[in-house]
């Protein structure tokens, strides 16, 4: 298989019995559904892969360009959101359900990972406030959170900030 961005060969990488295909620029291709073995920061597979990818150089290509699936070649991948708060965009093949992540996108998925409890909380907040939540305008995803706030408030604010960043 070849990198959909640079057309260079993708290198197979075996992690815990699962093979993924990495590019020299830190991109990675996952076969059908295997991304879910790597998408949570608590998963050992995900930690190992992230460390491996972070040793590569940053991408210098235009990631907004549509790409073809490395596996199906003739099929154009669809750009879609990975997480429910729409913070991370990925490329998914409508043919084989393979996923391509560009450099840095696995790190973003880990940063924006929601626990099942957080997902429920976000859904609840959106429902009870008719979609309107009063919040300070987002500055950066990396803004330190105020330690004096209650855990509940902080979590909701973080979720909303992620949702707003993706608009
Ligand atoms: Zn495909």
TrEMBL record:
Q: What region holds the Transcription factor zinc-finger domain? A: 68-110
InterPro entries recorded: TF_Znf
- Protein's UniProt name: GTP-binding protein EngA
Q: Which organism is the protein's source?
A: Pseudoalteromonas fuliginea
């Amino acid at each position: 298989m070849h990198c959909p961005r640079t057309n260079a060969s993708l290198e197979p990488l075996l992690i815990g019995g699962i093979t993924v295909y990495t590019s020299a620029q830190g991109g990675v291709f996952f076969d059908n559904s295997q991304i879910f073995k790597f998408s949570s920061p608590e998963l050992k597979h995900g930690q190992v892969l992230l460390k491996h990818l972070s040793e590569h150089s940053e991408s210098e290509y235009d990631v907004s360009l549509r790409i073809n699936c490395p596996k199906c070649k003739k099929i154009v991948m669809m750009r879609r959101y990975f997480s429910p708060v729409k913070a991370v965009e990925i490329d998914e093949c409508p043919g084989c359900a393979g996923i391509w992540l560009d450099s840095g996108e696995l790190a973003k998925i880990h940063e924006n990972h929601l626990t099942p409890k957080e997902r429920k909380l976000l859904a609840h907040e959106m429902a009870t406030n008719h979609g309107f939540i009063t919040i300070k305008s987002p500055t950066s995803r990396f803004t330190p959170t105020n330690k004096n706030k209650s855990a509940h408030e902080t979590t909701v604010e973080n979720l909303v900030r992620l949702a707003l960043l993706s608009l």
